[in-house]
Amino acid sequence: MAEIGKIVLDSDWLAVRSTEVQLNGTQLTTTHPPTGPNSPWMPAAVPGTVLGTLVKSNVVPDPFYGLNNEAILDIAVSGREYYTFWFFTTFEHKLSRNQHLELNFRAINYSAEVYLNGHQMVLPKGMFRRHSLDVTSLLNPGGRNLLAVLVHPPEHPGSIPSEGGQGGDHEIGKDVATQYVEGWDWMAPIRDRNTGIWDEVSIYVTGPVKIIDPHLASTFFDNYKRVYLHATTELQNKGTLVAECDVTIQATLDTKESFCLV
Amino acid sequence: EHLQTIHVSIPAGKTIQYTFPEIFFYKPELWWPNGMGKQTMYNVSIAVDVKGYGESDSWSQPYGFRKITSHIDSKTGGRLFKVNDQPIFIRGGNWILSDGLLRLSRRRYEADIKFHAGMNLNMIRCWGGALAERPEFYHYCDIYGLLVWQEFWITGDVDGRGDPISNPDGPLDHELFLLCARDTVKLLRNHPSLALWVGGNEQVPPPDINNALKNELQLHPHFMEFDEIGTSTQYL
Questions:
Q1: SS3 for A166?
Q2: Quick one: pLDDT at residue B174?
Q3: pLDDT tens per residue, range A41-94
Q4: Could you tell me whether strands B225-226 and A42-43 are parallel, antiparallel, or unpaired per DSSP bridges?
């Protein structure tokens, strides 16, 4: 039985500019996966941005040294396709009966298409939202799973006036994304507008019932002598039968001696 | 006394929202900002066992008991904060992000935030033109006692001002903005360092967004305090 919980996918990612491969996502995750960091594929920064990946692989210089940023093509000049990238990795996992596996992206800028073992899923736009995909039925019975993600830049990357200025031509404000990336009085423009899988990617194993977004709050009375902890959570039954559950909540305080007060 | 197990039935394929009976604490250790006391945190864990299966899922989160109140002072126009009913003189740092290529790491966050605490600051303001900061950022603010003023993604320079004049109506897709805001609140709301949500930088968001944020972030009456004349005072 696979262990319940999270495994972060933060290593062994590859990346390539989408225009440099002629394969689609189904082919990349079935018959024609990349074999390693062989050109045009390169080691990827995940979590991170496309520009971070290009810097990591020495394709472009680090923009934060000297005037290096001037040597990097801006998305307004190159077009969005130039910073549209494939990211690829593999993971192994075998589930037991009644177990479920979710593929989680804590944030992507700006939208993406996900392919797992040949199956396509579309991640809608928005830089500050989590995506959670139940991929239980898509897992490879052999245990090795091929994952490819095509990441698209913001829809309105804008252009940078020659004199610079706060937020460039302001186009980025049309998207729900960071706005400093068109440049500010303290910052040069970020050439890829922070396109990428910029926050944690993970897989998460549960049984039939999953805990979603618990909320903790407290109330105070009698000069903090009486305090109440209030907790609410969503519980999702992914199974096909009624789930009879024992739900336990516990609050402990670790003392210096590593004892827990219960 | 700080352990409860409840039986719950969940229909097949359904999601329910469940509220536990409140858990009583007598004189718990409180969480204080940097310079006012310890940053005590309890570990709160939730686990679900399914009959015929066993442990199905578990979750845990360090949690600090603290009450943060703030209001605009009518004489100075400034915002005054209290933590656990004690006035606090805010010494804040302005934060954009840790790295422009979003090479965000726990190690870097810890160093940056520990440095803020070492400078005797007690608040970090996350500017609306950059990120809703990540849980790792908040984790270290919890540990080092930095209150966080978190802005949503609106700036005057991109939404209403600038040359040429920018669109004052915020992003094109207001529903998407609110969806992202709701999800961000759910991601960060349990951190004791989270002190204040702000609509944006130097700008009021478009009315529909602003009203939705104010409405959805207002406290449940259960969590409001009332003064002697019956006027409610909100706190997070």
A1: coil
A2: 98
A3: 999 999 999 999 999 999 999 999 999 999 999 999 999 999 999 999 999 988
A4: unpaired
In contact, A229 and A215? CB cutoff 8 Å: no
Give yes or no for B20 touching A (CB within 8 A).
Answer: yes
Amino acid at A147: L
Q: Dihedral, CA atoms, B28, B33, B36, B38, nearest 10 degrees?
A: 50
B235, pLDDT greater than 50: no
Give me the sign of the Cα torsion angle B133, B135, B138, B140: negative
- Give the per-residue SS3 of B48-99: EEECCCEEEEEEEEEECECCEEEEECCCCCCEEEEECCEEECCCEEEECCCC
Tell me whether residues B223 and A129 touch, CB distance under 8 A.
Answer: no
Per the rule left: phi > 0, alpha: psi between -120 and 50, beta: everything else, A222 is left
Cα–Cα distance, B67 to A25 (Å, whole number):
50
Cβ atoms within 10 Å, residue B198: 17
The CA R_g of chain A, rounded to the nearest whole Å, is: 22
What Rg value do the Cα atoms of chain B yield, rounded? 20
Contacts of B55 in chain A (CB under 8 A): 4, 207
**Gap between the Cα atoms of B141 and B33, Å rounded:** 9
Q: Which amino acid appears at position A154 of this protein?
A: P
The Cβ-side half-sphere exposure at A56, using a 13 Å CA radius, reads 21
Separation in Å, CA B144 to CA B34, B45, B127, B131, B141: 6, 22, 20, 20, 5
Peptide bond into A110 cis (omega under 30): yes
Location of structure tokens 């939705």: B212
Residues of B in contact with A208 (CB under 8 A): 50, 53, 56
Q: What are phi and psi of A31, to 5 degrees?
A: -90, -25
Summarize the confidence of residues B1-23 as an average pLDDT. Answer: 95
B202 included as an active-site residue: yes
Mean pLDDT of the B41-67 span: 97
Q: Which amino acid is at B71?
A: H
